[in-house]
Amino acid sequence: MRLLSVRLILSLIVGVLLVSLCSSGYEVWAGKLSLRRDLQRRSEVLAESLAGGVERDIERGSLQALRRTTQHFANRENLMGMAVYDPEGHIIAITKDLAPKMAEAPPVVRQTIKDNSGADAFQRLDDHPVHICVLPLYSPPDKFLGALAIVHDAGYIRDQSIRIWRDTFLSGMVQVILIALITLLIVRWSIEGPIARTAHWLRALRTGHMPSSRVGMPDEKLYQPLAREVATLAQSLNSARTAAEREARLRAEGQSQWTAERLTADLRNRLGGSRLFVVSNREPYIHKARGKSVEVQVPASGLVTALEPVLNACEGTWVAHGSGTADRDMVDKHDRLAVPPESPAYAQYLYWVHFAEGSLMTLMLIALVLSRVAEAKESPVKERIGKRLHQMLAFVDGELAGRDYFAGAEFTAADVMMVFPFTTMRRYLDYDIAPYANITRYMKRIEDRPAYAKAMRIAGPDVKR
Fold first, then answer.
1. Is 15 exposed, middle or buried (0-12, 13-18, 19+ CB in 10 A)?
2. What φ, ψ does residue 3 adopt, rounded to 5°?
3. Banded pLDDT at 441 (limits 50, 70, 90)
4. Which of 29, 89, 214, 324 gets the most CB atoms within 10 Å of its CB?
């Protein structure tokens, strides 16, 4: 359980970190893009507002006024300064702090002078990130005077990105701690506790320390899908232990009292390979209709109480009058009920009895008709029916995995119904069961049954008449 907790917590931590990293990466990228666009816009507005005055100062030859202008706008809101270049790329005026870094015209300035159009670029000056916006300067009528470069410090954009990553890391750590604590509490209360109580119940059941009145499984909603099967297993185990203890006590006391278990064993030894039949007016199971559902009742009868478990254990046959309102709905076409209703396999028995005719054979008959109609050879319906038949056979093949027969470990009427599609029907409808390993093994098991081999010798398809 600790390993499960660790795995769950690590999975959640990794998931949260990945989501945080992706979210933060996008936030950093979007924030950086927004800050760059804002800086470009401010640089362009500032350059356009200064260009007119700079152009007049150049026309007048007032270098002193140009120098005052370049110095006046230095170190303002990330503004490092400005520079004015002549048409050959030589400096006319420049902010004092920029002079050592921009003595030669940067590539973006040379590009503006060459193309005679504005440009901007993010680059590094002395290993420091900056943004340079360059506008061409003119005097009427369209005389090219040079270029004006506005230089902003872009380092704050990087600082903002680092701050976002730092905040993300701290918030991620807080989330990881909270998730780990919440996960531990959930595992402790919702998983570890129920598993511990269920394990304690199974241990008490295995060691025989639980009274028979408490055989039912603990009321844990987490395990409701398994509750019925486990409870049935527990009841069977408890019954077997009780019978074994009673038999051992009788042997120790030297008594010869008959029990249902001893009677079953004795009948099996006496009957050998024969079958046991009981004929009576009273039926062992009464099926009564209750709206859309069917209720199974065991009548209060000494005969039923005494012989029903014996016939069930010996695979006997009970012939009786069906008095239930739903008896006809629950038997096969020979008025037989092959599996006791309280058996865990009863639901499977009913399902496969009706599946054979209601689902599988219906689809096979449609496929058979389409195979006999020439016009349906290229029909998409035929292809669709073929795919559906493959899906149904694959479903049947999967259901046969791990079981001998369709209703469990015993041969029942459900197998009689389901064998027909895999034997006789294959003589009319061309399909192969070889790709379905479980169906193939099931048919081999059926063919090995003595009764089936005898039937094939008497009335098999290869018998000459």
1. exposed
2. -65, -40
3. very high
4. 324
User: CA-to-CA distance for 401 and 163, rounded, in angstroms?
Assistant: 60
Stated as kind and residue range, the H or E segment containing 46 is: helix 2-60
Query: Quick one: DSSP state of residue 106?
Result: P
- What is the C-alpha to C-alpha distance for residues 57 and 253, in angstroms, rounded to an integer? 129
Interatomic CA distance for residues 37 and 26, integer angstroms: 16
Bond from prior residue into 340 cis (ω within 30 degrees of 0): no
Q: pLDDT tens digits, residue range 295-324?
A: 777 777 777 777 777 776 666 787 887 777
Token look-up 């409808």 returns 429
Q: How far is CA 418 from CA 206, 308, 384, 400, 437, in A?
A: 38, 27, 23, 12, 16
Residue 327 C-beta-side C-alpha neighbours within 13 Å: 15
- What single letter denotes the amino acid at residue 223? Y
Res 215: pLDDT: 47
pTM of the predicted model as reported, rounded to 2 decimal places: 0.39
Q: Which of 96, 92, 72 is nearest to 84 (CA)?
A: 92
**Residue given tokens 């791990």 in the structure block:** 402
CA gap 5, 181 in Å, rounded: 11
Task: Quote the tokens at residue 383.
Answer: 């292809």
* Number of Cβ atoms within 10 Å of the Cβ of 38: 11
Residues sharing a CB contact under 8 Å with residue 171, sequence separation 6 or more, in sequence order: 20
> Looking at the predicted structure, is the pLDDT value of residue 92 above 50?
yes
Helix (H) or strand (E) holding 80: strand 79-85
